[in-house]
Tripartite tricarboxylate transporter substrate binding protein (Roseomonas alba), 323 residues
Amino acid sequence: MQRRALIAGTAAALAVGTARAQEGFPARPVTLVVAFPPGGQADVVGRPVAAAFERIWRIAVPILNRPGAAGEIGNAAVARAAPDGYTLLMALSSMALLPEAARVNGRTPAYEPDQLAPIALFSADPTVLVVPAASHIRSLEDFVTEVRTRPGQVSYSSAGNYSALHVPMAQLAQAAQLDMLHVPFQGGGPALTALLGGQVNCMASGPGPIAPHIRSGALRPLATWGRTRLAGFEDVPTLIEKGYPDCEFYIWVGLFAPTGTPAAVIDRVRESSRLVAADSEFRKAMAASGNTLDFRDGDAFAQFYAEDAARLVRVVRALGKIE
């Protein structure tokens, strides 16, 4: 009887403690790390997420851009951060493949995916192949012809080796047997700036960062990596429908916390993330930036993440070592 009472009392105390932890969070600013410079997909989605969290929590949620090594530096920083919920990561899909890329290249990974716990997915869009509007390349067919005519000379920018902007272009190069010149930068923002500045000939990008430049007439979309045509880009064919069935890639943006963060805190952030997804200002910001809201949390996001990560690891192994 005494033992039962002790167990019941312990359970009740734990429940109260969990509730208090959830109610008390956050009590100070929460840093949202973006592992890329400003202007890339994670940053474009992360800023309105942070702004919505601030409205919900009435606590500052500063964005900390920690670029480098295709996102590896920022991802690793959050993986090593105190698991208390006060350091979160707004990650790209490449987060799942970078440790495998390190192993393929004979390096010890800076972090492992299981050091980061998935909380919520905010967007998942296929990448889009774009060229400057002034380019004589007007279609995917023109693009393939151009690359084959000038092997090794048509250049594309990316956020770094094995990044979410590099992998889809590598997929296309494999599928269409193309020889292109890869020019890696420290993030999607600088990669896009290089394209707009005429330093490279093309790039693959999430729709958010390039949408304003397509609307302004600065860039021309040629194809997307989706299974179906992308909303807002209905006139742009998919690579699959153009005869490249293996060219399917999604650049997603999701929220993660260091593994070991208390369940009550994770629950609090997850519940707040649902409120973010329903927030009218956040929705307006997503629409204005050209990003499709695709909110998933809990088991739905965990399953999506696990399946996508397995596919991306296979792609990295097929790419092999990059000298």
Summary: The chain has two domains: 2-124+251-319, 128-224. The two ends are 68 Å apart (CA to CA). The first strand starts at residue 31 and ends at 34. The chain has eleven helices and eleven strands.
